[in-house]
Design brief:
The protein has 19 helices and 32 strands. With 746 residues, the protein is of the alpha/beta class. It folds into four domains: 48 residues; 345 residues, TIM Barrel (Alpha-Beta Barrel), CATH 3.20.20; 238 residues, Rossmann fold (3-Layer(aba) Sandwich); 94 residues, Sandwich (Immunoglobulin-like). A hairpin with a 2-residue loop joins strand 30 and strand 31. The radius of gyration is 27 Å and the shape is globular. The structure holds zinc ion. The site of zinc ion has 7 residues, from helix 7.
Length: 746
């Protein structure tokens, strides 16, 4: 798709989308998309690859013992019954499930005379399903370690790294020839012997933190390319780490491209796809990974602990922010991937269903995953089958052409990856690292409560072309931004766009080197006047004057203050709307009174220039909201967004009771509004046990000028919905939403 785009320099993005969507429809007309499609072969060798139009994937993850018990026909029938386009099957890597001849490629001890991978591949092909060989490049047996000690990661003392549970396996190093010779030899063997359509690697490269290894190859990399010794700490403040980060990502891309090239030796239509994902908490540059990825697979299988329900939708938004129109899949684990984990029992079907619903609502393709070829728990099967067959029955309505949101949320990857709080409390470590995403999490929660439609825009994708469709850009403490990124944000505002930003946004470069003032100081109308103050509870924002952002706060002169704030000076004589009331003791009650009840320090600055409106909050109100759940802070954020839009309507509004997440897409046949029902006591602590239906939901949907809507259909409930159309506005009511509803406008 990117190549097609490069070929069409004279077209606008809209024209391009229309064209590429058109080609999607043609391709997907094939039976199950599975045949090599000679009849669809276009003289244009650049036609979209098979995976760009896949809509459903399945994966059965073999274990070493499976050759003893696996029923090939039953499995192939199961996946065919889900109407999947592609199935992931274990080829090799740690364990070969076919009679490999590659040295040190460990055959399953239970393989005997079987060729399980070959049998399964043939069975899938017989049912017209694509096959992607699922590989594992991360570990190998001691036999390989003895023959090729240079393939393996080492601790600082030189010892190899054993797997923490399966201690007979050793961790391989991606800077060694294991990745450039051994894995390629295995891929080529599989390519040669089997009708595979691509390769996927479990676990690699991931989007998580970078590993530091002390093997001979890595020592050489540090010496020759990084210029030093292995970085002691994975912190953006360390200049060695910064260099290492670039060298590391370069190596990932080099390996990815090499493996994709090997996949394509078989057919230009074949592909290598790496393991990505991790939701909003990414460390490796998803922007750079996406540059080589024809297909982005988010291995984001479920949630545990107090992870909010919308974690999968967020994954979709992150992937969309870097992949544009290319293929994105997300894995749903059918097993109980809670903490503790159970690999061989099903998770609650309601939880699995809502995860798959988020996958499709956010524009990704669901990939349903079970472990082990001889399950003793079979309850998971129906959750996948019923959702996937429903998807297949309505497939054209999931072929998205574009999101129709007009609000952008900046995805602040540098801050999420590297940020250390600006105050004196020092580095965040371990699980606390999740704190860097809490600014985004708080803004997100408020946007869901306000029922806004929005997209993520990656901080490295802020081109005028990308931003043109958005009326407002919301920035949840993007403390770490490049100069060029700040310039693009300023350009967006100068061109009439509206902006909300919080806390330390633009106060550092992308690695965390402080600037003397916000790079966006003139946009905010505020300058930093000192170091971050906090964390303090029991501080406040005083309402000094009426303003639209304060609607609903009649009856109070005080609002809850942010836990941390940058002390700021308004750079022009702006009206003081909200002033800071500094912290005072919260205990004991006798001591609880303000020592400085009134200050001139702005808690926020609101500016207006032409069409553009800017709201800058000096405190971390987004993160404070996420941590406290305080409803005033959510309302303040929602009011601010409405003010940015000048109270003009969004392209789609959905009014009704209940906690929802909304997506709206222009689709191949028209439009689709996706409503996810999060109204559930398990919204912020899994697993969802059952659904609590909401409704009715009154919808107003703006369609393109001149577009005549002829029907509105509720795809999940089934049935047509009465509607009216006046000019561009289509009005209808969704009577109820049980788990998820898709209203299709055609
Ligand atoms: Zn190494």
């Amino acid at each position: 798709m990117r190549r097609s785009k490069a070929k069409l320099p004279g077209l606008t993005r809209r024209d391009f989308l229309t064209q590429s969507a058109g080609s999607l429809i043609v391709t997907s007309a094939g039976p199950l998309l599975a045949e090599p499609a000679a009849s669809l072969e276009s003289p244009d060798s650049q036609r979209a690859p098979w995976y760009s139009s896949m809509r459903r994937c399945g994966q059965i993850n073999f274990n070493e013992r499976d050759p003893l018990a696996m029923d090939v026909t039953a499995w192939a029938d199961y996946w065919a019954s889900l109407k999947v386009n592609a199935v992931l099957l274990n080829g090799g890597g740690i364990v070969a499930f076919y009679p490999t001849r590659v040295p040190y490629h460990h055959r399953s001890e239970f393989l005997g005379s079987r060729d399980l991978f070959g049998e399964m591949t043939a069975a899938m092909k017989k049912r017209n399903l694509r096959v992607v060989a699922r590989m594992d490049c991360n570990y190998a047996y001691e036999e390989a370690l003895k023959a090729h000690p240079e393939w393996f990661e080492r601790n600082a003392d030189g010892t190899p790294r054993r797997h923490n549970e399966s201690t007979w396996l050793y961790k391989t190093c991606m800077f060694t020839s294991y990745f450039t010779e051994q894995m390629p030899a295995i891929y080529r063997e599989i390519n040669q012997r089997y009708a595979v359509d691509g390769f996927f690697t479990n676990g690699w490269p991931s989007t998580g933190a970078l590993a530091v290894c002390f093997c001979e190859s890595c020592k050489k990399v540090y010496r020759d390319e990084v210029g030093g010794t292995p970085p002691g700490e994975t912190a953006g403040s360390d200049p060695v780490y910064r260099k290492y980060y670039d060298v590391y990502i370069d190596r990932v891309l080099e390996v990815w491209k090499k493996w994709d090239g090997i996949a394509k030796e078989k057919s230009p239509d074949s592909v290598y796809v790496g393991n990505l994902g991790g939701g909003i908490r990414t460390v490796k540059s998803v922007k750079r990974l996406a540059e080589v990825a024809g297909w982005f697979n988010a291995d984001h299988q479920g949630r545990s602990g107090d992870t909010p329900l919308w974690d999968c939708s967020q994954q979709g938004r992150v992937a969309q922010s870097v992949m544009k129109d290319r293929a994105i899949t997300n894995v749903t684990g059918a097993y109980s991937n809670s903490r503790p984990v159970w690999r061989h029992v099903a998770k609650a079907p309601a939880e699995a269903t809502l995860w798959m619903a988020q996958t499709t609502a956010s524009g990704m393709v669901p990939w349903f995953h079970w472990l082990g070829g001889a399950p003793e728990d079979n309850r998971w099967r129906e959750a996948g089958r019923s959702f996937f067959t429903w998807l297949a029955a309505h497939e054209p309505h999931f072929q998205n052409k574009r999101s129709i949101a007009d609000i952008a949320v900046l995805y602040p990857q540098s801050t999420i990856a590297f940020y250390r709080s600006g105050n004196a409390s020092g580095s965040w470590r371990g699980a606390e690292r999740a704190q860097t995403s809490e600014y985004l999490q708080g803004l997100y929660y408020a946007l869901l409560e306000g029922r806004f439609l929005f997209d993520f825009v990656h901080q490295e994708n802020l081109s005028a072309e990308t931003l043109r469709k958005y009326r407002a850009l919301l920035i949840p403490n993007a403390a770490y931004l490049r100069d060029a990124e700040c310039a693009r944000i300023a350009d967006f505002v100068a061109a009439g766009g509206s902006l909300l930003a919080t806390f330390e946004t633009s106060l550092y470069n992308e690695w965390g080197d402080p600037r003397p003032d916000f790079a966006l100081s003139s946009v905010f109308g505020a300058s930093a006047a000192g170091s971050v103050i906090g964390p303090f509870g029991n501080s406040y924002a005083r309402i000094e004057q009426t303003h639209p952002v304060l609607n609903g706060f009649e009856g109070t002169a005080l609002l809850p203050g942010a836990e941390n704030r940058v002390p700021v000076r308004a750079s022009e004589k702006a009206r003081l709307i909200l002033s800071v009331v500094p912290y005072y003791p919260a205990f004991p009650p006798e001591m609880v009174f303000p020592r400085t009840p009134r200050t001139e320090e702005p808690a926020a600055v609101f500016r207006q220039s032409g069409k553009s409106r800017v709201a800058y909050f000096a405190g971390d109100i987004d993160r404070t909201f996420w941590r406290s759940g305080n409803t005033d802070l959510s309302l303040l954020i929602q009011n601010s967004v409405r003010w940015l839009l000048d109270d003009a309507r969004q392209p789609v509004t959905v009014a009704g009771e209940g906690m929802t997440e909304l997506f709206a897409w222009e689709t191949a046949p028209g439009y689709a509004l996706h409503i996810l029902n999060y109204n559930n006591p398990n919204m912020t602590r899994g697993f969802v046990r059952r659904f609590y239906a909401i409704g009715p939901q009154k919808v107003e949907f703006e369609v393109a000028a001149g577009k005549k809507i002829t029907g509105v259909r509720a795809l999940r409930a089934g049935g047509d919905l009465p509607f009216t159309q006046r000019d561009r506005t289509v009005r209808f009511e969704v009577p109820t939403v049980v788990d998820y509803e898709v209203a299709a406008l055609v």
